[in-house]
Amino acid sequence: MPSFDLGSPVNTALLLYILYSVQRILFPITSSPKSTPNEFKAGYSWMPKAHPPTVLFKTYTPKTLEPFSGQDGGRILLAINGTVFDVTAGRNFYGPNGMYGNFAGRDASRGMAKQSFDLEMLTPVDQPLDKLEDLQNDEIDNMKGWIDHFSNKYIVCGKLVENDAI
Ligand code: HEM
């Protein structure tokens, strides 16, 4: 009659394996990974530490737009024809030392239309919005070309309205 011989190496190995499997079932590993998984391996098991950055669409006025000029490394916004773009990614262009830093935090419509970064292209922030009524058709077209460029490259994050509109 066959009997269970613990002295047999095969049986010993099997017994150890069974004991190991049973303790894994009774005491599963519950520790979290040391770093957040960032690649897809048959599904994510843990939530990312933080929500990815998002941009809220907001209504700005010339006065509330002005602080977003990229000073102190902050966000950089500019408006063209009522549309506000987040151009922070273009800090080299619009940051404090950038070639187009004059547009940062401002309504850049007239400068974009006339292809000029002269400061007189900018309307003082306490004045009504520039209505652009005197612009020539080719200047309006030029401005629209820039709107296309910015729409393809940056995030539209708001609209620009008169100071007393909100
Ligand atoms: C001195 C003459 C100028 C030179 C040499 C120059 C040069 C440049 C260069 C090299 C770029 C980068 C293009 C790219 O990498 O996509 C650029 C972009 C640009 N330029 Fe000029 N530019 C000049 C005048 C102007 C003027 C007068 C304006 C006024 C509106 C202007 C507005 C812009 C804008 C808005 C961009 C796009 C930046 C962006 O993609 O965020 N440029 N320019």
Automatic annotation (TrEMBL):
It comes from the Eukaryota. It is found in: Endoplasmic reticulum. Coiled coil: none annotated. Its main location: endoplasmic reticulum. Gene3D superfamilies: Cytochrome b5-like heme/steroid binding domain. Residues 60-161 form the Cytochrome b5 heme-binding domain. The keyword Plastid does not apply. Keywords: Endoplasmic reticulum, Heme, Iron, Metal-binding. The keyword Kinase does not apply. Belongs to the cytochrome b5 family. MAPR subfamily. This is Cytochrome b5 heme-binding domain-containing protein. It comes from Hohenbuehelia grisea.
